Amino acid sequence: MGEEPWTTVGPRKRRTRRGTTPKPAVAIPAPAPAPSAPSPPSPADIDRLLTTLTALRASFRTSAFGRALLAHATHALSRHGGAASAAVCVGLGSAARAEASLRRRSLAQLACFLEVASAAGVGGAGRVVQDPAFSAADEALFGALGVRVVRAPRAREWVARGGAVLFAPFLDGAVLLRDVLPGVDPLLYVGCGDLAEMRYQPFPGSDVEQMRAVASEFMAGRTEIKITKEFEPDKYIFAGLSLYVRSIEDDEET
Predict the structure, then answer these.
(1) Which of 21, 40, 154, 224 could covalently link to 150 via disulfide, CB atoms 3.0 to 4.6 Å apart?
(2) What fold is seen in the domain 43-246?
(3) Residue 83 — pLDDT band, cuts 50, 70, 90?
(4) H or E stretch including 119?
(5) What are phi and psi of 155, to 5 degrees?
(6) Segments in 182-225 forming alpha helices (H)
(7) What are the CA-CA distances from residue 126 to residues 6, 12, 74, 119, 199 (Å)?
């Protein structure tokens, strides 16, 4: 009597004789569907972001923190010709993220950057932003504002040209000391406090001494002005921010 047909049991074949229970075929899972592309931002979405940003810029200008920061920035710039060649922002985060508190935080920091750029006499395409977290909505927002979006390492190249204002409010210290500050000398730097004390955790595989050398070189001939006033709408958004200026010895702590 002849044998039964071959039965597929996965990638190999075996012979199944009469009287035995055939093994079921092994199911091959279907490939997962490709993730759908995010829908493009609508004009209404961008209008809402612009409306919130406009309100935050007004709040920033009238807040104790904003008045103190802009007063020190204007004073420092007046001692270096009164205007900057560019205003560069690194590490802003996405202003279009879903969580409301994080979205507002990024928009408030963007408001601060735009006000500092305005105080520095920088408008149009001289305002430059860079962050890998930017989404299509962020790019549409910056397009509406006339702000230039660049990719790494272009932001640092703009700062390295000289005469720039650097705004990196809460950029990770490892990124700051590895990718942004080496070899640059901005007119002003707005960023995390205590740069001179090097309170940053080293990034994986980093040379801590090299990081300290970058911080030390950057701080040479530079003064840190701690901005201790509060941004009244949310005292935590700018807490710990400082202004670093070139050798202005008569400024006192705010």
Answers:
(1) 154
(2) Rossmann fold (3.40.50)
(3) confident
(4) helix 100-119
(5) -60, -45
(6) 208-219
(7) 73, 65, 18, 13, 32
Quick check: 248 and 221 in contact, CB under 8 A? no
Q: What letters, b where the CB count within 10 A reaches 16 and e where it falls short, cover 240-252?
A: ebbbbbeeeeeee
The pair of structure tokens assigned to 246 is 């070139």
Contact 95, 138 (CB under 8 A): yes
Q: What is the mean pLDDT of residues 80-90?
A: 90
The torsion angles phi and psi of 115, rounded to 5 degrees, stand at: -70, -40
Strand partners, 225: 243
Closest CA to 85 of 140, 150, 166: 166
> Can you list the pairs that 215-221 forms with residues at least 24 positions away whose Cβ atoms lie under 8 Å?
215/177, 215/181, 218/181, 218/184, 218/244, 219/195, 219/244, 221/246, 221/247
- Which tokens hold the place of 40? 């493009």
Mean pLDDT of the chain: 83
Candidates 58, 59, 73, 94; CA nearest to 234 is 59
Give domain limits for the chain.
Answer: 43-246
Q: Residue 250: its pLDDT value, please?
A: 46
Flag whether pLDDT at 5 surpasses 50: no
